[in-house]
Amino acid sequence: MRTDRTAPLPAASLLQLMWLASPALPVGGFSYSEGLESAIENANLSTEAAVANWLLDQLHITQSRGDMALIAKAVGAWRRGDMTQVQALNDWVQHTRETSELRLQTEQMGRSMADWLRNQHQDDEALMPAVRHLAALPPTYPVAFALAASTTQAPVRAVLLAYAFGWAENMVQAALKSMQLGQSAGQRILARLADAIPDAADHAIGLMDSERQAFSPMLAILSAQHETQYSRLFRS
């Protein structure tokens, strides 16, 4: 697999990463706000700047230190066929989701990604054993995304850029649906996130397994509040 950052990424691999980052990917990401809806309700996220700052914190505190760091390891594990590490990484995701709805989200999206991979690659005899292994875990979304990305020739950094931008698009759309923000404000928020994503990806790649963490107590509190929120649009 190509790992040189300076080498051009083959068109097929670039398009595959764009596909994986697309909100149209049928894994249900559009139906989750990952605590944002609760933060708007309970933490006074009432302005464009407040939403942007909150999402930037989430990018650096939960994504870069947690899921993105894990995906960086999982891509390599899938490419090496190291199913012991794949299992360990999947267990880590399950055990570090701090609320019921966050765990249900990663499990539902993981199953949907496994189904998508099965449908897309049903004639690929080399890949299908890995897809069957993923489905039997049961899968979490970061580990499932890593398998999908591992089939490309993309270096890990490019994989993380695609993953993080897909997450950012979903979060901005959740904000637009949850409060009075216009499309231009949404694009400005997305621009701030896009500027921060490369550094977040580099930080994630540099973390050792012992440095990976999932510690975001305010997000956990907001997610728990969301589970009983009276009126809501999203599943998390």
From TrEMBL:
Q: Which domain of life is it from?
A: Bacteria
One Pfam family from the UniProt entry?
A: UreF
Localization terms from the record: Cytoplasm
**What GO CC terms are in its UniProt record?**
cytoplasm
Any GO MF annotation of the entry:
nickel cation binding
Q: What is its main location?
A: cytoplasm
Q: Which UniProt keywords apply?
A: Chaperone, Cytoplasm, Nickel insertion
Annotated Gene3D superfamilies: Urease accessory protein UreF
- Cite the InterPro entries for this sequence: UreF (IPR002639), UreF_sf (IPR038277)
Family as reported in the entry's similarity comment:
Belongs to the UreF family.
Q: What does this protein do?
A: Required for maturation of urease via the functional incorporation of the urease nickel metallocenter.
Q: Which PANTHER family match?
A: UREASE ACCESSORY PROTEIN F
Quaternary structure, per UniProt, is:
UreD, UreF and UreG form a complex that acts as a GTP-hydrolysis-dependent molecular chaperone, activating the urease apoprotein by helping to assemble the nickel containing metallocenter of UreC. The UreE protein probably delivers the nickel.
This protein is called: Urease accessory protein UreF
Q: Which organism is it from?
A: Acidovorax soli
Q: What is the phylogenetic placement of the source species in the record?
A: Bacteria, Pseudomonadati, Pseudomonadota, Betaproteobacteria, Burkholderiales
